[in-house]
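Quick one, tokens below. Sequence please?
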């Protein structure tokens, strides 16, 4: 098969559903016409399963397309005694959808951990430099040079030890805005205090 058939979510045809085992045998031999029939019969079910897990239509369409490509590639592995063709495809769909959700969550967790490490490192560097080289008046002056949101975010995080999420909830501001504000505020503080990166 050169390229996947365009994804659709139409209703499966009943004759195709009844004949899925023999269609599957043809697909396993590389019959593209048989795969078209299989696709039409399974795509709505596959998409529905994926959408329930992923909950984002665009991503669900992408994952469902990947599942159908897997069905094409793995057709020879299908064993009727292990269950129906629909059940087999549904199992692949569920696994793929769960993998997508886990992958997205892992990426978010990595970003948050990286941002927290960067904030801690930058805050520690600023604190050390401020304690040893700068007087508290310079710190106050530099803090006054920040925007109100930056000042609040940095003060809550650095002096009160709040997390990004806790700062966002405290100042009733979206989390991405807090992350950006804190990063920019710490950079401005570092520059104002003459701390070299």
């Amino acid at each position: 098969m050169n390229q996947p058939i365009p994804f659709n979510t139409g209703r499966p045809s009943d004759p195709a559903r009844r004949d899925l085992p023999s269609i599957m045998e043809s697909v396993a031999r590389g019959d593209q016409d048989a795969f078209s029939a299989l696709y039409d019969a399974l795509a709505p079910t596959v998409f529905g399963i994926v959408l329930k897990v992923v909950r984002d239509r665009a991503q669900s369409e992408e994952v469902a397309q990947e599942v159908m490509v897997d069905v094409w590639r793995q057709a020879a592995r299908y064993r009727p005694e292990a269950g129906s063709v629909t059940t087999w495809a549904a199992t692949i769909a569920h696994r793929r959808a769960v993998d997508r959700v886990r992958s997205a969550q892992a990426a978010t967790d990595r970003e948050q951990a990286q941002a927290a490490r960067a904030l801690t490192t930058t805050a520690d560097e600023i604190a050390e430099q401020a304690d040893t080289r700068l007087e508290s008046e310079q710190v106050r002056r530099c803090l006054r040079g920040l925007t109100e949101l930056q000042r609040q975010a940095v003060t809550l995080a650095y002096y009160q030890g709040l997390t990004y999420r806790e700062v966002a909830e405290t100042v009733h501001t979206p989390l991405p805005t807090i992350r950006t504000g804190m990063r920019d505020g710490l950079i401005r503080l570092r520059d104002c205090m003459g701390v070299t990166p």
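The two ends are 54 Å apart (CA to CA). The chain has two domains: 14-105, 134-193.
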